[in-house]
Write a structure and sequence with these properties.
The complex is a heterodimer of chains A (about 375) and B (about 160). With about 375 residues, chain A is of the alpha+beta class. Chain A is built from 15 helices and eight strands. Chain A has a single domain, classed as Orthogonal Bundle (Cytochrome-c3 Hydrogenase, chain B). Chain B has one domain: NADH:ubiquinone oxidoreductase Nqo5 subunit (Beta Polymerase, domain 2, 2-Layer Sandwich), CATH 3.30.460.80. In chain B, the strands form two sheets. A five-stranded mixed β-sheet of chain B has the order 1-2-5-4-3, covered by helices on one side. In chain B, strands 6-7 form a two-stranded parallel sheet. Chain B is globular, with a radius of gyration of 16 Å.
Amino acid sequence: MTISAAESPHYRMHLNLGPQHPSTHGVLHLELEMYGEYVLGIETVLGYGHRMHEKTAERRPWQAFFANTPRIDYACGLPHGHCYALLLEEALQIEVPERALSLRIVSSELNRIASHLLWVGAFLLDLGAFTPILYCFDDREQAVDILEHMTGSRLTHPYMCAGGVTGDIDEETVLKIRAFIRRMRSRFSIYERLVTNNVIFVMRTRGIGVITPELARAYGATGPVLRASGVACDIRTVAPYGGYGRYTFDVPLGASGDCLDRYRVRMAEIRQSLAIIEQALDRLPGGPVRAAVPRKIAPPPGEYSSSVEGARGHVTYWAVSDGSEIPYRLKIRSACMGNLSLLPELCRGMLLADLIATLGSLDLVIPEIDR
Amino acid sequence: MNDELLAGRLRDAGAHVTVLEARGRGLHLRARAEMDSLEACALAVREAGLYPVFMTAVHTASGFVLHYRFAAAERDCRVMISSPAGPDGRARSLAPLFPGLQWHEREAIDLFGLLFDNHPDPRPLLLPEEDRGLHPLRKDAGSLKTPEQLGLTARPETGGEAP
């Protein structure tokens, strides 16, 4: 008597995905409980990129932590620096010059575009499409070049500081950014033909990994993941910070919360970021780019917090000061933790290939979770 | 549910609530509760449709103080609920109410050595096996400050006390 494959105990298997796997985007280890091609359960193993940033903060002067901020989320580091700067400025009651506010927004939005382009390329690579990443990196290179010129670094931009930014931009840089906006706008039709209307791409992503608003809320998922489910949660508009309240832009929303919507939302966000940068350049005020801030700072005892919208969602810094020159406690809320934590509930009963698509669509930077 | 109603619910649940000025802080409701009433406070927050932002602790001279932060998705409303943990870092978990807090609490188990009574999965999250018991965010006895020194107790001057 023979037993069918489905009854065989070997049909159930334990499968390791990562920690070194191109589809896990960083060192994430997933232990999958499989039944044939279907995922029964998932166990996420984190901590490979853990650097204990929060303890580092407790050992150094308040200002020194700016060096850590872009390294937490290395694909979109400027919003992290922005968040920490807002926290210190609130603690010390510093007024930031208008030109610095504009430059912060220009650099943060360029960083967001670079991050989204990196994601589009990597996500398509996950799905087996090799060509799009060549176009994405071509475009991203332009944004990164401008950021390098502005901030002095290509990846971990040391640009934000208490009271403003570390460097000004000249007229030549403004022209470069305007050229980038023009170029980027002309590229959307290429992406549309290459990706958005690609029938294989649509079949791999439509109706896959549907996140309901309720599921997102229970797990604290934010950013494009939440907006793809139709919830207009964008801290730039809900609780405007750093001058965002003066800009007009849309918050792109999805309808069904599947992988395709998450792609569409991010592509639409690139357009909105371009619009924000253009508005900032059109009315770029003159003046200093940094307020006078004492070399040694010691916020009065108490708790301070600030929140910004990173490329992946809600970033919050929360600090407790004992009145000394080093923080007593600094908590960093990363967006990716909330976005990834819903995966075990989401992926039950999913095909392995769809799990890869869903994991990719969350836009994870694993070291941001590990911190 | 608007902020005033939520503040009322949190007070009914047994918390001391301070309504803060929105300017700059982005923090609107600051609630302080005992461990017994933490779950009732979290239920009020869940009914108001807020999502969990983070959970963390602060090591003070009088033990650990837990902090739970929540926010509304489509309006400007942010809530922080704090509660002193019991002796040896014993605490009630809010993960059964907000599954999103599960990993945050596991992180606190790792980094502070807190003990959650009813946590669905109380394993360490970030640190490797050999670092069990390291609890890096605990402070040396010499550098501990009291909640009063840290400004973590209710201070009337930080915002108007709601009627």
